[in-house]
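Researcher: I've been going back and forth with a colleague about how PTS EIIA type-4 domain-containing protein might be arranged in three dimensions. Neither of us has a model we trust, so I'd like an independent prediction. The organism is Niallia circulans, in case that matters for your notes. Sequence below.
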Amino acid sequence: MENRAILVITHGEFGIELIKSAEMIMGPQRNLRALALRPGESVDDLREDASKIVEENEKNGLETILLVDLLGGSPSNVSLSLLSKYDLHILTGINMPMLIELLTFYQTVEDTNNLIETVQGTGTSGIHHLNRNFLKK
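Model: Here is an independent structure prediction for PTS EIIA type-4 domain-containing protein. You can compare it with whatever you and your colleague have in mind.
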């Protein structure tokens, strides 16, 4: 389904660098952008920038999937504010396994809700507690 775009919004450069890392693994990606809320920057400006990107995606016939770092933080609050105006999907707690999974399948999986469920599961299953006992297995 080649009508989706991904927008990552995070505190600081986290999302921008996460995308760079994912592209180092997977190569350049289409319809993938990031916004950063840097210290001293306005949340209103971030909201305006995010709104412009989502609006541009809609004009281009692209459904937007938003990935944010922390539920309740400014990036997620900005994303939630866009829900009243745009039809989009928001996933919180972005991590590298989530982004890699999403980039692997976001252009081919038909049902967005199934895609989101898979990516959410991958994000959770990508978290492991490793200690010396792990080495003994």
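Researcher: What would you highlight for our discussion?
Model: I'd start with this: The chain has a mean pLDDT of 95. After that, consider the following. The longest strand covers residues 4-11.
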